[in-house]
Amino acid sequence: MTAVDDRMTGIFENLEVPEGLKAELLRGEIVMMAGPDLVHNLIVAEIQRQVPYARWRAIGTQDLSFPGDGSEPQPDLVVFERGAVEEHGRLLPAPLVTLVVEVVSKTSVHRDYRVKRELYAEGGIAAYLIVDPLKGECLLLTGPTGAAAGGIPDYLNEQPSKFGDPLVVDVLDLTLDTSEFRTYS
């Protein structure tokens, strides 16, 4: 991490975000956005409800840390194995996370499909689920490549599905029911 990254991290950690807004630190940039709407929140709640509680913890709006990177994203939902994490502190180390979920909004399309895809793959997060109420589709990404020599980090496997179709999430041993997912009107 550079001195600029350290400064941005310090600013971000002391930032007072106005009510109704959300802030993330992505690759050294502070990104502010409007808080999510009802469709977004209902999708997150529906996914969280289906995650098998006996083995997994599923929590919303948790800041993640990425070793050596000036990023502290706040995914819409984070899933990790019970007992894998000490239950204190502000940041959850990305390598301990099994699945992250982002629900796309009109202003987050590029961040969710490109920036966070690369970031989560580089961080070794096993699965990244992009839920897109603009298109009525989900995209499950698995098999992170990490920081390949000179290459762009990415996921090896893409599993697209339409809202209403069941989505198999092997890393959680779960078939996700998407029949309650709605599109933005």
UniProtKB/TrEMBL annotation:
Q: Cross-referenced InterPro entries, in alphabetical order? A: Nuclease_put_TT1808 (IPR012296), Restrct_endonuc-II-like (IPR011335), Uma2 (IPR008538)
Q: Name one GO molecular function term.
A: endonuclease activity
Provide the alphabetized UniProt keywords: Endonuclease, Hydrolase, Nuclease
Q: Where is the Putative restriction endonuclease domain?
A: 12-167
- One Pfam family per UniProt: Uma2
- Looking at the record's lineage, which domain of life comes first? Bacteria
Q: What is the official name of this protein in its record?
A: Uma2 family endonuclease
Species name for this entry? Kitasatospora acidiphila
